[in-house]
Design brief:
Blueprint: E1 3-8, E2 11-17, E3 35-38, E4 40-45, H1 58-67, E5 70-75, H2 87-97, E6 104-107, E7 109-110, H3 119-124, E8 130-133, H4 147-159, E9 163-167, H5 183-189, H6 192-209, E10 212-215, H7 223-232, E11 237-241, H8 243-247, H9 269-280, E12 286-287, H10 319-329, H11 334-349, E13 365-375, E14 394-404, E15 407-408
Parallel strand pairs: 4-5, 5-6, 7-8, 8-9, 9-10, 10-11, 11-12
Antiparallel strand pairs: 1-2, 3-13, 13-14, 14-15
């Protein structure tokens, strides 16, 4: 609707009618083709610093976030060295990040074998929750939890109402990945039952312990009935999906295009349609990037070998236009997209004052031109390595300006540690 948003002291003071008589030191009027969005909240970002900063880092990741209209990110506990599985590791992560941030940053802790006793300390030190893997994470310093380890972590988290987020794939359901350039071979190696079996195990453990759990990056639509039944049964479980599962399909992945490799994988178009339905009915609560970059060499773009390539899609700067392009084609309004990518991720982790344009909230705002189009050039993206599954695609929606607490993001690091 037409409105005036008054900002004072870095916060939204008032949201008033277009003709309201507000006095201000500075007035910004958006272009006629632009709208004002809340700064988006991305609770699933792999920044990888310290330890693997050549993959990504806080300066580049947060610059990419701001360029994409995202004003708050939560950093995942793995792919950095050390992983964030102790208070000391969390302190090291904060020290590495502190002077580099273009947006606000919070942190997940990690649940790994043997650290259940550290989870309360991580929570009290400010971690928003802890992440676990239920199969090999791909990096040796972040091993997975077995069923007993999962229950031990959930039992401890339930004591203080902590949140566990889980990468749900069942190792026993995976098949060998054939060497070569065929995407179909990689896709077949991680079938939907790998997700459904792991989610079923997580639901059972959450029911037994009473803990809060969240399933990250749902790619298989077969998971949705399990989630609905669990919620109906009183299990405290939520789930997310990601832009690549909503915008891409297996049918369009060329052989050798390892920039599309991620785990779990991009599935077929019918599966994609079902994920959209799961968002519409609330089974999936939010859309977050799972920005998981690496160096071009690790993507094996030279050989196109899906078996050898690192799995992860770098999409932080493009998340909003990717989702909006797909949503607009389906008749989903921008208000709903902003809810999925702002208010709901903030609510998941209890981030008060983020993800909405309301009085008392941080003045994290975005001028967005929903009908402007652009073609993705990876070399012009702000994240560290110029690799993108969206290269050459024409997307709808351009971020014109991003404000953090009422100040335009302009290259001067003003982000805070949350």
């Amino acid at each position: 609707r037409p409105a005036r948003v008054g900002v004072a002291g870095g916060r939204i003071a008032v949201v008033a009618g277009w003709d309201a008589p507000l006095e201000a030191a500075e007035t910004v009027v958006l272009d006629d083709d632009a709208v004002l969005l809340p700064g988006l909240v991305d609770t699933h970002v792999h920044v990888n610093e310290p330890g693997r900063t050549e993959w990504e880092g806080f300066a580049t990741a947060t610059a990419a976030a701001a360029a994409g209209g995202i004003t708050t990110i939560l950093d995942m506990p793995l792919n950095s060295i050390p992983p964030t599985v102790s208070v000391a590791a969390l302190a090291a992560k904060r020290a590495a990040a502190r002077a580099q941030l273009h947006v606000d940053v919070g942190f997940w802790g990690g649940a790994v074998p043997g650290n259940a006793g550290a989870l309360r300390d991580l929570h009290e030190a400010g971690a928003y929750g802890v992440k676990c893997f239920l199969l090999d994470s791909g990096v040796p310093e972040f091993p997975p939890l077995d069923p007993a380890g999962l229950r031990a972590a959930l039992t401890e988290l339930a004591r203080f109402d902590g949140l566990l987020i889980a990468h749900c794939e069942d190792a026993g359901s995976l098949r060998p990945v054939p060497s070569g350039r065929a995407y179909g071979g990689f896709l077949a190696s991680r079938p939907p039952e790998a997700e459904t079996r792991a989610v079923a195990g997580l639901i059972a453990a959450a029911r037994e312990t009473g803990a809060r759990v969240h399933v990250v990056h749902v790619s298989a639509a077969e998971v949705l009935p399990l989630l609905r039944a669990a919620v109906a049964d009183g299990v405290r479980i939520t789930a997310e999906t990601c832009p690549h599962y909503l915008a891409l399909s297996a049918e369009e992945v060329p052989d050798g295009a390892t920039q599309f490799k991620c785990c779990p994988p991009v599935r077929d178009a019918a599966n994609r349609d079902a994920l959209w339905a799961g968002l519409a009915d609330g089974t999936l609560s939010c859309v977050v990037s799972d920005h998981s970059p690496c160096t071009p060499e690790l993507k094996r773009l030279d050989t196109g070998d899906f078996a050898a390539a690192w799995g992860g899609i770098a999409s932080l700067q493009l998340s909003l236009p990717v989702v909006w392009t797909a949503a607009a084609s389906r008749g989903v309004p921008l208000t709903t997209v902003a809810d999925w990518m702002g208010r709901r991720p903030a609510a998941l982790v209890g981030l008060r004052g983020k993800g909405a344009i309301e009085a008392g909230y941080d003045a994290d705002l975005v001028a967005f031109a929903p009908d402007e189009t652009f073609t993705v050039d990876p070399a012009r993206l702000a994240h560290r390595n110029p690799v993108s599954a969206y290269a050459g695609r024409t997307l709808r929606g351009m971020v014109r300006t991003t404000w953090l607490r009422g100040i335009p993001v302009d290259g001067e690091p003003r982000g805070r540690l949350l």
